[in-house]
């Protein structure tokens, strides 16, 4: 993997990890997320106007943003419903394991091939993602909710698959539309889902969340867009499999911030998971 896309993904992962750390501090996570998505197009409205003036807005390419929006919303719906049926420690890492699908989908749609080092990096990152959320290495029975583990696990896998799909779609989209313009249109369109969701919440809860966390909400809105735009630029320069795998370094950032800022315990599975992801990230740099 070349130096520039590698650096872009590292910066993207750092921004992604930090906004997820800020999101942890939310009192009402649905209100927090909805408000941050509402703020994103407002914060970036002026840069978007300059970008359109500079690179134009090809109307025939806007359908790329529409499809990207549908894939992102599908991911959110699958993940939210998986959480209702399956323990978080199972659902979350499975939903992040998009690296399982990326090598095969990238070969199928773009003809991308990765070498032996690349496969080793994907395996290390995927293993790290699956391990990092475990409480311990002792086998335990997952907590089941509502309809049981079957649907919950299936939805978590589907969530991971949609991440792989919108990563692939992003690589194709930036061939036709500037990455920032694509991201802005995609973010603006996604509010067709988030605004009704926000309106269904109790107004007092929404106002309270804004009052208590407005600066964190604005920071998350800023960093979320920045993180995705950096990834889109990297996708335009590098192989989608390596970009998707390397972006999981955001989990390492999250664990580090949780330990340093919140004094969260670094358990043995977390330490092993972090080590595996870092090894995988290093391997992507030398992979071809």
TrEMBL record:
Domain of life according to the entry: Bacteria
Membrane-spanning segments: 6-23, 35-55, 61-78, 90-110, 116-137, 149-170, 176-195, 215-235, 241-261, 268-287
Compartment(s): Cell membrane
Membrane-related topology note: Multi-pass membrane protein
Keywords from the UniProt entry: Cell inner membrane, Cell membrane, Lipid A biosynthesis, Lipid biosynthesis, Lipid metabolism, Lipopolysaccharide biosynthesis, Membrane, Transmembrane, Transmembrane helix
Start and end residues of each EamA domain: 6-132, 151-285
Name this polypeptide is given: EamA domain-containing protein
Organism: Oceanidesulfovibrio marinus
């Amino acid at each position: 993997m070349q130096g520039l896309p590698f650096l872009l993904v590292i910066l993207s992962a750092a921004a992604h990890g930090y906004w997820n750390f800020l999101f942890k501090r939310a009192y009402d996570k649905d209100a927090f997320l909805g408000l941050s998505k509402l703020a994103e197009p407002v914060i970036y409205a002026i840069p978007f106007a300059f970008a359109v003036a500079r690179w134009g807005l090809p109307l025939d390419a806007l359908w790329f943003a529409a499809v990207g929006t549908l894939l992102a919303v599908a991911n959110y719906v699958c993940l939210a419903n998986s959480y209702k049926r399956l323990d978080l420690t199972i659902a979350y890492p499975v939903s992040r394991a998009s690296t399982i699908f990326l090598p095969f989908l990238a070969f199928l749609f773009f003809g991308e091939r990765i070498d032996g080092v690349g496969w080793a990096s994907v395996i290390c990152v995927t293993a790290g993602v699956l391990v990092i959320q475990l409480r311990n290495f002792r086998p335990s029975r997952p907590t089941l909710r509502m309809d049981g583990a079957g649907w919950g696990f299936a939805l978590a896998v589907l969530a991971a698959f949609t991440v792989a799909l919108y990563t692939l779609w992003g690589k194709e989209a930036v061939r036709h539309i500037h990455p920032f313009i694509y991201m802005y249109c995609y973010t603006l369109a996604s509010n067709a889902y988030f605004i009704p969701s926000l309106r269904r919440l109790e107004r007092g809860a929404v106002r309270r969340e804004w009052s208590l966390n407005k600066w964190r909400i604005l920071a998350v809105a800023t960093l979320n867009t920045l993180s995705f735009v950096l990834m889109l630029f990297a996708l335009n320069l590098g192989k989608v499999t390596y970009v998707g795998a390397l972006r999981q370094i955001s989990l390492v950032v999250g664990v580090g911030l949780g330990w340093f800022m919140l004094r969260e315990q670094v358990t043995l599975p977390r330490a092993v998971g972090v080590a595996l992801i870092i090894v995988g990230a290093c391997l992507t740099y030398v992979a071809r």
